[in-house]
Amino acid sequence: MSRRFLFLFLVFACACGTGVVNRTADVSAYAARASWQWETTSHFLIRGRARLMGENQVFSGPVILWASKDMSAVRADFCGPDGSPQVSLLLDSAGCLIYQPQQSTAFYVSGGIPVGGGCFDVNSVISLIRTGYPGIPVLWEIVDSSDTTVSSENRWLFVSSGLDTAVVSLNRADLFPSLSAGDVFLEVTAASWHDQFNAWPMEWNLSSQAVNAVIRIRSYDTDTEPDDSVWSLVVPVPIDTLWNQTGSWIPAISLPVR
User: Fold this and answer.
1) Which of these, 156, 173, 184, 142, lies nearest to 252 by C-alpha position?
2) Three-state SS string across 166-217, please?
3) Which of 5, 42, 71, 129 is most enclosed, with most CB atoms within 10 A?
4) Burial level of 72, CB count in 10 A (0-12/13-18/19+)?
5) How many CA atoms lie within 13 A of 27 on its CB side?
6) Measured on CA atoms in the order 11, 12, 15, 17, is the torsion positive or negative?
């Protein structure tokens, strides 16, 4: 009986060990992809179409988005069917300016773009668009901060000073993770036909109480240099300033400095 018990115990231990190894390998593979994508991308231009349904707006049309790591800036226009901007956005290291020309409204949020109970700064947003990870993707940090307590997926937890939690989840079959923060859920529903390292998200699905959107990407351009005029947004109406009270999303696990 003792030998049989020992044999079953060893089989069980090996099975659990294999699962842990596979999970670690999945996390390491994603971390390698994300860090490589971040390091090899300095700026990009995205063109596509978006369908947006908000509390006061429903429209579908072209979307144009510029992002630059060197400038630490994101500039986007979400347009209606006639090509005129319905929502314009400028995000930089200081904060996020959002202008709705048709509504004659504009507001500015210090620190970054508000998502759930916190804000993501400009570098986190650039990384999110390129890699799906809302933070600068350092390989060892992604590996060491992963939470493998959920058997069906790998995930990373983020917290804000508002004591809320954001969850970044990666299923084994997916190239890019999803993000859940408060009532906001963002996922990549299609990827480009490249190898894993060169793949780009090609369709995003955003759902929340305030807005629902589907963004389909038609092209990515990493060669064209953005002109300085790209990083300006003229707002001819008063701007409401909203001070960030909840702080930025940061990894829930504190890691040592290497």
Assistant:
1) 156
2) EEEEECCCCCCCEEEECCEEEEEEEECCCCCCCCCEEEEEEECCCEEEEEEE
3) 129
4) middle
5) 24
6) negative
The residue assigned the tokens 């090509």 is 83
Locate 182 and state its tokens. 């408060």
Give, to the nearest 10 degrees, the angle between helix 2-39 and helix 122-131: 110
- Please give the Cα distance from 167 to 156 (Å, whole number): 6
Residue with tokens 């630490």: 72
Map tokens 């904060």 to a residue: 95
Class of domain 2-251: mainly beta
pLDDT digits (tens, 9 = 90+) for 182-205: 999 999 999 999 899 999 999 999
- Tens of pLDDT, residue by residue over 159-168, are 988 678 999 9
Domain boundaries, the chain: 2-251
